[in-house]
Design brief:
CATH architecture of the largest domain: 3-Layer(aba) Sandwich
Number of strands: 4
GO molecular function: NAD+ nucleosidase activity, cyclic ADP-ribose generating; phosphorus-oxygen lyase activity; transferase activity
CATH class of the largest domain: Alpha Beta
Protein name: ADP-ribosyl cyclase/cyclic ADP-ribose hydrolase
GO biological process, one term: positive regulation of B cell proliferation
Distance between the termini: 50 Å
Keywords: Disulfide bond, Hydrolase, NAD, Transferase
Number of helices: 13
Helix content: 40-55%
EC number: 3.2.2.6
Amino acid sequence: MNKHLASLLRSNDVAHSLAITTSSKTCVTFVMINVTTWFIMLLLCPCQLRAQFGTTPNIKHIVVGRCYNYITLIDPSLRYDCEEIWRQFEEAVVRQSSCNVTVEDYHQVFYAMPQTWPCDKFLFWSKTRALMYSYAAVVRDFWTLEDTLVGFMFNDLIWCGQDEDPGFDFSSCPQWSACRNHPVYSLWRQASQKFAEMACGNITVLLNGSIVNAFNRKSMFGSVELDSLNPQRVDYVNIKVVTNLEGPYIESCSQGSVVDLIQILQSRGFHWTCTDNEQTLMILQCIQDPKQPSCQTCANSLSHRKSLTSD
């Protein structure tokens, strides 16, 4: 996000300079329209633009700092060597070309920070990132991959090595789709696999019912986490399908790819439940957009229920 803001500020500086050096209002308007258009494209296509950037600046300070933050404030019971974790990570990335960092290359990184998590708290998600964060914040019993040390350390960062010289490439990193063994993808694949392997008790899966293929076999959940779940450790897989407040209402527990997920779970011996548009999830969306008509209906329903209780 900082890189995006910096780029925007640079673009505004260019627009400001051009506006000063030209007397034509048409030119000024043209420049400002272009800047506005660029900004809209930035908001609509963050993933594509982000892929053009290189390794996150100051990545070592960020990663090591997050590590110390985690073991000092979040989970003081952990006794890890943050500098050693960084050394293992750096070695895994910079000794390979930018498109040739495998899951195996990160084994020493994960070996340096083993972590276990309590049962009945695992939350998996796919295409519901923003809502997942809100849900996990409200229902504090949940643990997501981003709550683990590795998830906390590397969340939202970009990295890749240079093909010719040792070290990180801070100018340009390939898109995930450009290579099978992308350095960022390989780390998250390994992290996702280990997270799913540790899952136990009742687990929750949060899916987006407003898109086609809410359950996508090519997603991290569909391609890695699902296959790593152990029916001997997991009691119930509780699927929660949630749609956007304004729709569209494309998939549900009885329609679309969610049915495929249920069939896979059944074939592997998992017990499961499935819920459409759980009230807590809808309320969380209403907090973000309270003017939606469905939010007014929900508010009236809650008020009526409260009045009945009071009586």
